[in-house]
Structures are given as C-alpha cells and as structure tokens.
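Structure Section — protein described below
Tokens — whole-number codes for backbone shape
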Amino acid sequence: MSEFSVPTMQIFVIGGTGYFGSVLVEHLRTAGHAVTALARSEQSAARLRAAGAEPVAGSITDTAVLRAAAAAAADAVVYAASDYTPTAQSTEDELAAVRAVTEGAAGAAAKPVVYTSTGLVYGFDPVDVTEDAVLPEVSAQPVKAQAERIVLGTAGITGIAVRAGLVFGRGGTGLVTGLIEAAATNGVATYIGDGSNAWYPVHVDDLADLYVRAIEHPVAGVFNAVGSVPFTFRELAGAIGDLTGTPSVSVPLEAAEAQMGPGVRALTTSTHLLATKARSAYGWRPSDRSLVEDVRHGSYTLPPRP
C-alpha cells in the first residue's frame, strides 16, 4: 500500500477478476479507493461485489462499453487483462480494447492509464533490458509492445506501461500452476536443457502495491517490475518435484517444442530486468520473497485428483 495520504479515487479496472486483477482490486479497496471493474458474467460480477467493487457488464470486445467506462472513471484506468497465448483474433481484440480505453480516458485532466505489459517484450536473451531499449519485432509477446505504443502515444492521458516479470504468489499464475499440474500428471518435473537460465519474478502483492503507487502519484512512461530474488528453471523444477513427490529431469528443447509449440523457447531464456526506475519514481520496495521457496513451502498446493 502507498505510504502517501491521498483522497479517495474512482478507478476503472479491466481484468479485475483475474489472478493479478483480483489482488489489485483488493489493494485498491484497502487503500480506500472506489473501484468499478469489467465483468463478462454474473459470476464475475458477484465476485467483484464481494470484493467491494462495482461491476460493469461487458468484455474486452465491447469497445463502446470500455470507452464509456473509461470516460466515466473520474481518476484512473487500469488494463490488467492478460492473454499470454495470443492468436490473431485475440491480438486484434486487445489492441481495439486498449484504443477504446485510451480514447475514453483522454481529456484535459490527463488521468493515468496503467497498462499491464511484460518483460517478454524485450525478446529472446536481450542485451538491453532498460525501459528505453528499442524493442525487437520478434518476441514472445509482440501484442504487448504494440499496446504499449498506443498507451504511451495517446494525448490527454498519463500513459504508464508496467513490464512485469513472472508474477507469483497466493498459489497462482498459469505458468507455475501448469508446471505443477504437469509434474503431478506425468510423474516428472521437467526443465529444458541445463535449466540454468534465470528469471526475476515479482510477487503479486508487490506488483499490486506498485500499481496503487502509480495510480496515486502517476509518472508517465515505461517501468520494469521485478523482485530481487531470481530463480533458475532447474531450481523451480526441483521445488515442484519436492511438492509433487516427483523427480526433476531435463528435456531437450526439440522435445519441448514438439509437445508445447515454439513459444516454449521463452522458457529457455534468461532475463536480467531491474526495477531501478520504478523504485526511484514511486518509492517502490518489492519484498525479498522467493518463488522457489513459495512453491516448496508456501502458497502452492498439489492439484486436486480427478
């Protein structure tokens, strides 16, 4: 939570019932802010009401709804929806949604629009991972780079793009839970090659804290968001093996690609993102929580048996 005292704000959240979005709504409400959030089903709407937020019926394909809700949000808009297996249609939908949100939010007040991007936009094994780096055309998430340009290039808003590392904690995030489920199902916890490639993840509560700070005291631009405790994929497989009671084994990249597609190459990369800019601009201090220890002794559990 922010250490600064600010008046109550009205914030519109897209993706407020997802893994990160639901934690963000919790942090915003704890900070005393009023939240409206997109809900594409009555079940989602009920979850939002239970969290103290007001649902707005619609999905990211309802651009008129997004534009109107972003305009009605008096103080800030957050795009926290995520789709990390993009298709041509989902890419088109996300970019149209981001355009609608930024158009709706634009005005003399220059309200902040915070867009959830990813460190994957830097490409495969990048040399420059500073926020000013020229992004490659080929990456695991080109749609995020395109959406960033919309947010940062729209006049009349304070555009903020957060390039988050792998988000973890509270037993969530699809990559980690998917690897746990695969180990429990297949009897082995796998990593690719020698597994020495390292990522810097960020705890979901730390990331939500950064967003609250960015909304309350907005500074336009791009910000990396990672914690200070890295992990290697071999270490993660070992922790998953301990959790599931399975051995951790290496698989060749070719075999992993044959099973999961070419996108699995991202799991062989290393990242060395730093959050220096976010720390300086927002006074953000992420915790030293470890993904490996959280898997081994923390919030992650075995998947239910069929």
